[in-house]
Amino acid sequence: MFYRDYVWIKGKPQGRENPPGQQLDTTSRYKIVRDPYGKRHSVELYKDGKFQGIIYDSHLFDFRLCVSKMESSWQKIDAELVDHHPASLIRDQDDRTIAEERYIFAHGLCTECHIHYPGGPLVAVQKMFYEGASEEPSAVALFDQHFKPVGIKIFGSEAPEKGFTCTYESWDMTDEAALEKLDALFKETLPKGDR
């Protein structure tokens, strides 16, 4: 089925026809594809009825793994520079390389992490927000390759000696509170257009 827009809820894409308060490109349509068992999800982009590309495929990188409350045993291994940016490989508990991260720095702080399928296409972008002179991010947001928000985490410190802890987390991008927080923290760093 084709939709005018889509939104992320708990790491899964959900199609929608009339998103509240948005003017949409009427030539673009999104096709949300799921296998019969709900194990694989993908989002395809069509313009004027013609296939333009795949925006997301859980076979390459599954956003649902980021939502899980279960401890994941991912391992980060430093890799060689990629396009002059520091990079890491991410391996899962089976020692399988599942992602390549490329880091973008500004003023000595990591402000973006581009997540690629190993040796392949961009699958997501993680943006970090810093408050004041802190070297720890105050917020981290995950976006798909079309900069549609997937999730947000906000960090704070109840007691400075204990370090930063997650004080807010949302993986439901229909939640108005989450969207307001995303807009307040990341609006200036995102491309213009509908989100």
Please give a handful of descriptors for the protein shown:
single chain; 49% strand; 4-stranded antiparallel beta sheet; 8-stranded antiparallel beta sheet; globular; 195 residues; mainly beta; 2 helices; 14 strands
Helices, strands, pairings?
Blueprint lengths: L1 E2 L1 E5 L2 E5 L11 E7 L6 E7 L2 E8 L6 H4 L7 E8 L2 E7 L5 E10 L2 E8 L5 E8 L9 E6 L4 E8 L8 E6 L5 H11 L9
Task: Give a description of the structure.
The protein has 195 residues and is mainly β. The protein has one domain. Helix content is 8%, strand content 49%. The strands form three sheets. It has an eight-stranded antiparallel β-sheet with strand order 7-8-9-10-11-12-13-14, covered by helices on one side. It has a four-stranded antiparallel β-sheet with strand order 1-4-5-6, with no helix packed on it. Strands 2-3 form a two-stranded antiparallel sheet. A hairpin with a 2-residue loop joins strand 7 and strand 8. The protein is globular.
Arithmetic mean of pLDDT? 85
Q: What string gives the helices and strands in order?
A: EEEEEEHEEEEEEEEH
The DSSP helix count reads 2
| Sheet/helix structural class | mainly beta
Query: Reading side by side through the largest sheet, how are the strands ordered?
Result: 7-8-9-10-11-12-13-14
In short:
By secondary structure, this protein is mainly beta. The chain contains two helices and 14 strands, in the order ββββββαββββββββα.
